[in-house]
TrEMBL record:
Gene3D superfamilies: Hotdog Thioesterase. SUPFAM superfamilies: Thioesterase/thiol ester dehydrase-isomerase (SSF54637). InterPro entries: HotDog_dom_sf, MaoC-like_dom. This is Beta-hydroxyacyl-ACP dehydratase. It comes from the Bacteria. CDD domains: SAV4209. Belongs to the enoyl-CoA hydratase/isomerase family. Residues 27-129 form the MaoC-like domain. It comes from Streptomyces angustmyceticus. Residues 1-34 are annotated as: Disordered. Residues 1-29 have a biased composition (Basic and acidic residues).
Amino acid sequence: MKPGDEPKPGDEPKLADEPKPGDEPKPGDELPTLTIPVTRTLIVAGAIASRDYQDVHHDPEAARQKGSPEIFMNILTTNGLVGRYLTDHFGPRCTLRKVAIRLGAPNYPGDTLVLSGTITEVADGTAVVRIVGANGLGHHVTGTVTVSLPEGTA
């Protein structure tokens, strides 16, 4: 996909598998990756949905004038995608208790974000997951998320 291209049918993001009943997460477990095409529409819609009207998230010329080669994704959209990644894996009944993420390389239109995670701790019905989101420029997002697990999974 070239920068600015919109996805074609069949390019939809691939969802991570939800755990099977009785799966016991343990430290060292790796979550399946989630691949998300970064489109201009995703960037602009995420900024609007999070009420972030900064022009660098929707106006290519303004982004260039401020030193960026293109519009780029805001942190609130990234935060939402990290949350989606975990609820896709642990199921809709999990609760995100603590999200501690840091942005790195920008997400520009036409790139692909690949989210991965590794469970680092499991205790008292919660799991701590180390998150990495990479794109063609490097690590877009890194951090940890503490998740309350649904009954029967921890």
